């Protein structure tokens, strides 16, 4: 099942949400998952979105958004924390591959956020490089606590917003693409129980941002 290349950030966003809706309702089309598509994309790739998400095993991007080969350029780390490799990968997806949309995908019951909350509230700590993950999530947890909020969804949403802000602050390539309206960045929160991806924050899609603020 071959589809035309997505030209605009809005088109890419709508295609992604449409796929998630099919997944939620149990009517997936499994597009671009056959031998013909495999042959088509073997020479080159042109994904319509870069997906930067949590590594959680329940967050398989192509499944929950009902996509296939060559559709999504996926970067995943625990708690969607970022370093130079992540930034370089996202910039590659936008500036080299031409993807018009970047998605930051968080989710409820995130282990990285829960571990960070425990570290902040109880002084518990982790060994090895897990400690580095916790340190990178800590600013989000502290911001929510400072605002007096306590619900899990508040911590998840804040960490998604923080990640989007950090992406645009650290990546000049991405920030310039968004300013020029060549790309947009959205933050989505995935609900494990019902499979829905809810919009948390958006940059570069003014009408979507207006709907979110209303």
UniProtKB/TrEMBL annotation:
Catalytic activity: hydrogencarbonate + H(+) = CO2 + H2O
Gene3D superfamilies, alphabetized: Carbonic anhydrase
Any one GO BP annotation for this protein: carbon utilization
Single GO molecular function: carbonate dehydratase activity
EC number in record: 4.2.1.1
Keyword vocabulary terms for this entry: Lyase, Metal-binding, Zinc
Binding site for Zn(2+): 54, 56, 107, 110
Cofactor(s) of this protein: Zn(2+)
PROSITE patterns: PROK_CO2_ANHYDRASE_1
Domain of life per record: Bacteria
Keyword Metal-binding attributed: yes
Pfam families linked: Pro_CA
CC cofactor note: Binds 1 zinc ion per subunit.
Family of the protein in this entry: Belongs to the beta-class carbonic anhydrase family.
Protein role: Catalyzes the reversible hydration of carbon dioxide to form bicarbonate.
Protein name: carbonic anhydrase
